Amino acid sequence: MTYRQTSSISGSAPYTVKYDFSSGTYKGAAATVGTVTVTGVTAASVGLSTFYLDPVTGAALGQDAVAGGANDTVTTYEPADWQQRLTNAGIVNGGSGKIAVTATITGKSVTDGFAALGGATAIVIKYEFAINRDPNETVTTAAGSFANSCKFRVEFQLKDFQVQGPAASSPLLAMTLPLLQSSFVVPTNVSLWTTNAVPFMLPKSVTVTTLPAPTGAVTTTQELIAVTKAAR
Fold first, then answer.
1. In 3D, which of 132, 135, 136 has the Cα closest to residue 97?
2. Which domain of life is it from (predicted)?
């Protein structure tokens, strides 16, 4: 499957992301492995890397790091099936719901990033997601139209940002933590569509992030442009 992502930021260039899926393992258990290839920019600049999904539910299990020398860095989520739970919360037309999600980032990039402050074992970020379900509709993409797609509108906000390990008691971290937190605390609204025709992936999503002045609203559109199914 191939995605195209474009941004309304002045001067930004479109880039293409290709996702290839295969059977594999994650921490010793069966998993669907998503391999990412980025054209137009570096993978690190868009934060994309190899990721792992539950082969049954499609829940995100973790991902590899994209920074050089930090390939052991992974992000895990609690609950692991938060995406499925979020969808289920607003599964009925006109339905809505909320869910709390904790993301834990561990590995070399975390350790190295806070080495000057005594080191860190993990970064823990807590979010709250609110979802609203709209009536089904046909969503049109470059890969074709997908009839009767489920449409959701999602809002999320940061609830807590913590650094775990020796650095947590550093006076310097106490001074810089509000700045770190503010980089995550931006109003974000996402409209997305799902369809059984492309399991685990979204045919289209539109994200609007409102940044402080003078930048303002930034709109990012992710759209499916090609689907290739492996022979069975």
1. 132
2. Bacteria
**pLDDT digits over 168-220, tens only?**
999 888 888 887 777 667 778 899 998 888 866 788 988 888 777 777 788 88
With beta carbons less than 8 A apart as the criterion, state whether 163 and 176 touch. no
CA nearest 5: which of 226, 224, 227, 228? 224
63 contacts: CB under 8 Å, gap ≥ 6: 49, 50, 51, 52, 74, 75
Asked if 229 contacts 219 with a C-beta cutoff of 8 angstroms, the reply is no
Judge contact between 85 and 99, C-beta under 8 A: yes
Name which of 105, 117, 13 is nearest 66 in CA terms. 105
Structural domain boundaries of the chain?
2-226
Tell me the residue type at 155.
E
Mean pLDDT (the chain) is 80
26-80 pLDDT, tens per residue? Answer: 989 999 898 888 777 766 666 667 888 888 877 778 777 655 544 567 778 888 7
Rounded to whole angstroms, the Cα distance separating 78 from 173 reads 25
Alpha-carbon span 117 to 156, nearest angstrom: 30
